[in-house]
Write the structure tokens for this entry.
Amino acid sequence: MKKIRIRFFNINLGPYSAEGQDINIKCHPSLIDRVLEAVSALMVIVGCIYLVINDGFENKDMLIGFLINLLVCLLMFTSAYAPVQYIRFPVRISRQNIVKQYIMALRLMRIVNILICLMLVFNALSINFPWANPAIGISVAAMLLSILVYYIFAIRNK
């Protein structure tokens, strides 16, 4: 029986990868990771509820936008389960630092997922509520700040 192999997309955080090394890491999500995943799923559910209650599916543009938002959130959700071979790190990878770097990269993907889902919910809210426009910018700034903090921690823990 032929084995089906699903190819993940690469997560490019820097120039170094663990590809070619004999490293096999099985990382089970911790309680913090599960909470981050639940928060991002909650953001998608809130967006669905808002769309159904406010507009229904009468507005075709709103429906297409919602489906694109849902696809982006699902892709980001699965990126936190990418194998170590598909992540490019900002520091050189060795047997001593691979586990810590891998966990930090996966946690960054979960945080970015929350912020992207939050940004998409604020985008849907901005149609009817003007206060949601600055919130989109705040969520983008928080995403950039989280990436910056990741790079600082990655370089400190190399």
